[in-house]
């Protein structure tokens, strides 16, 4: 799911900005170069209809996951795996005391937002130190992703694959290598696949110049390992609304 609107432009001002605000367009172009995708496989997110908005307005926030529960057959529990460098206090506050949602969050404990109230919603909290490196990080991700999915088997995983964990990120304060990010995504997708749980990945934060290439490399790696399936993506695109994954052959 992609739209050129994702690429932030401010009348040329983005060129002065230290972040790569055009990373999503670059990811798409890298994947096209590798022939993994073409335009016919891209789904553009549509603007929410009044009916859609009504679903969310009863809930105070427009919340995609609540939308999922109400509109997609067969989804009654979900696990959020949040591996962006920041604590995910938005979804945590949204799903406080909501037993349909299991939250695992791994983040730098010293950076924004440090939201102590929201932390109460996290079932598996992995608090990282400044400059955490690949070996320790990947071991913790592996242990806690497996642990989370063993504790509760959800109908869907929502995976926040933020790349602001990358070494040198001015906000994240962690020191994960590009290969570490590729490996991290692989660990999460393998855990999902071995249990046959569908997974929704969002690319989220991380705006260094090399970020787009790393995201594309990770997606290509997942494809090469058979963890994402172009044919299935095509099927989903043409058979929306989503059928429950359990019925897939
Ligand atoms: Zn972040």
TrEMBL record:
The keyword NADP does not apply. Keywords: Hydrolase. One of its GO terms (biological process) is epigenetic regulation of gene expression. Residues 72-219 form the Histone deacetylase domain. It holds the Pfam family Hist_deacetyl. CDD domains: HDAC_classIV (cd09993). One of its GO terms (molecular function) is hydrolase activity. One of its GO terms (cellular component) is histone deacetylase complex. This is Histone deacetylase 11.
């Amino acid at each position: 799911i992609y739209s050129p609107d994702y690429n932030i432009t401010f009348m040329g001002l983005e060129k002065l900005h230290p972040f790569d605000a055009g990373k999503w367009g670059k990811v798409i172009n890298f994947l096209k170069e590798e022939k993994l995708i073409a335009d016919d496989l891209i789904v553009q997110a549509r603007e929410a209809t009044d009916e859609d908005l009504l679903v969310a307005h009863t809930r105070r926030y427009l919340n995609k996951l609540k939308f999922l529960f109400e509109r997609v057959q067969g989804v009654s529990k979900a696990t959020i795996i949040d591996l962006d460098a920041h604590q995910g206090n938005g979804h945590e506050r949204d799903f406080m005391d909501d037993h349909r949602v299991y939250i695992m969050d791994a983040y730098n404990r010293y950076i924004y937002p440090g939201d102590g109230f929201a932390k109460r919603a996290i079932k598996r909290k992995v608090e990282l130190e400044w400059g955490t490196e690949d070996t320790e990080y990947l071991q913790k991700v592996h242990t806690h992703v497996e642990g989370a999915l063993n504790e509760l088997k959800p109908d869907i995983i929502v995976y926040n694959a933020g790349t602001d964990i990358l070494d040198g990120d001015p906000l994240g304060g962690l020191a994960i290598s590009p290969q570490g990010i590729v490996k991290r995504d692989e660990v999460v997708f393998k855990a999902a696949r071995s249990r046959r749980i569908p997974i929704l990945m969002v690319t989220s934060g991380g705006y260094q110049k090399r970020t787009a290439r790393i995201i594309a490399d990770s997606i290509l790696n997942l494809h090469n390992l058979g963890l994402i399936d172009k044919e299935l993506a095509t099927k989903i695109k043409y058979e929306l609304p989503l059928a429950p994954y359990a019925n897939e052959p």
